[in-house]
Structure formats: structure tokens, C-alpha cells
Automatic annotation (TrEMBL):
Stored InterPro entries: ELM2_dom, Homeodomain-like_sf, MIER/MTA, SANT/Myb, SANT_dom
SANT domain sequence ranges: 101-153
MF terms (GO), sorted A to Z: DNA binding; histone deacetylase binding; transcription coactivator activity; transcription corepressor activity; zinc ion binding
Protein name, UniProt field: MTA2 protein
Key word Nucleus present: yes
Region (Disordered): 1-20
Keywords of this entry: DNA-binding, Metal-binding, Nucleus, Phosphoprotein, Zinc, Zinc-finger
Length: 159
């Protein structure tokens, strides 16, 4: 306190959550339920999501993944933990906000190519990218791999 801070503020980490916020755990949990419901609704309205995830059950599962929860928590923090403002941010004038992760961004044929490449090269993601998925970034392939490991397809291949 009272000392000048000469650090480059643009290079500093950004605060994304305040554990001392005024909300109760129950209020936060209720907001996360609403955020997942909005995510499911956004997928129902989005044509490309409907093609990739034709059932409500699959859309709801996608809306429950980390990307939706991270977006919800960020929305709360950016709106000063004001629930009404945060809810309005989830569903702005143009319709609900749709957040997608790597699992949703990949087509079924890309996922099959990935599985084929993984069988051939193991976890050599550079070779997978070079020979099978050159239009994907290395970061996208690695993120997809770690999400894919949580799916039934991974479990079926391992056992």
C-alpha cells in the first residue's frame, strides 16, 4: 500500500474469480443450472449443433461440459456477481450465447481420422497433424485428445 507498481499491467494475470463474492453456494449452483439450460437451448437453435448433436440428451450433455461452466463463472465475475445482469448477459438481445469446445468443433469424420491416426502414431500429435489433420492446429488436436479420453469411444478402444 502506498508504493508505486511499475510492473507492466498488460502482462499481469487477470482475475477471473473472486472467492469472496457476495453470492451463496446455492445461488452459484442455481446460476450454473441456468447456464447449462441456456447452453442446451442455444444448441437447439443452432443448425450446425443440431446436425452434430441431434438429440436433446446429447445437447444437454454438451452444455454440461467445462466450456459452459467456465463461461458461466466468467459471466458472473464480469458482471460483478450481479445475478440479474449475468443472466441478461447469457441471453442477450440476439439470442442465447453458444460456447463450444473442441469436441463440438470437430465433425464425426474428423474424429474418425483422429482415432485412425492415434492408432497409427500413438500420441505423436505432430505426425497426426501432418499426415491426417493438417487443417487443425496442434493445440486443437491436443485439446481434442484430452476431451476424447473422457468419452465412451475411448473406453471402447482401450478395453
Amino acid at each position: 500500500s502506498g508504493e508505486s507498481d511499475n510492473r507492466n499491467q498488460q502482462k499481469m494475470e487477470m482475475k477471473v474469480w473472486d472467492p469472496d463474492n457476495p453470492l451463496t453456494d446455492r445461488q452459484i449452483d442455481q446460476f450454473l443450472v441456468v447456464a447449462r439450460a441456456v447452453g442446451t437451448f442455444a444448441r437447439a437453435l443452432d443448425c450446425s449443433s443440431s446436425i452434430r448433436q441431434p438429440s436433446l440428451h446429447m445437447s444437454a450433455a454438451a452444455a454440461s461440459r467445462d466450456i459452459t461452466l467456465f463461461h458461466a463463472m466468467d459471466t458472473l465475475q464480469r458482471n460483478g456477481y450481479d445475478l440479474a445482469r449475468a443472466m441478461a448477459t447469457l441471453v442477450p438481445q440476439g439470442g442465447p450465447v453458444l460456447c463450444r469446445d473442441e469436441m463440438e468443433e470437430w465433425s464425426a469424420s474428423e474424429a474418425m481420422l483422429f482415432e485412425e491416426a492415434l492408432e497409427k502414431y500413438g500420441k505423436d500429435f505432430n505426425d497426426i497433424r501432418q499426415d491426417f489433420l493438417p487443417w487443425k492446429s496442434l493445440a486443437s488436436i491436443v485439446q481434442f485428445y484430452y476431451m476424447w479420453k473422457t468419452t465412451d469411444r475411448y473406453i471402447q478402444q482401450v478395453w
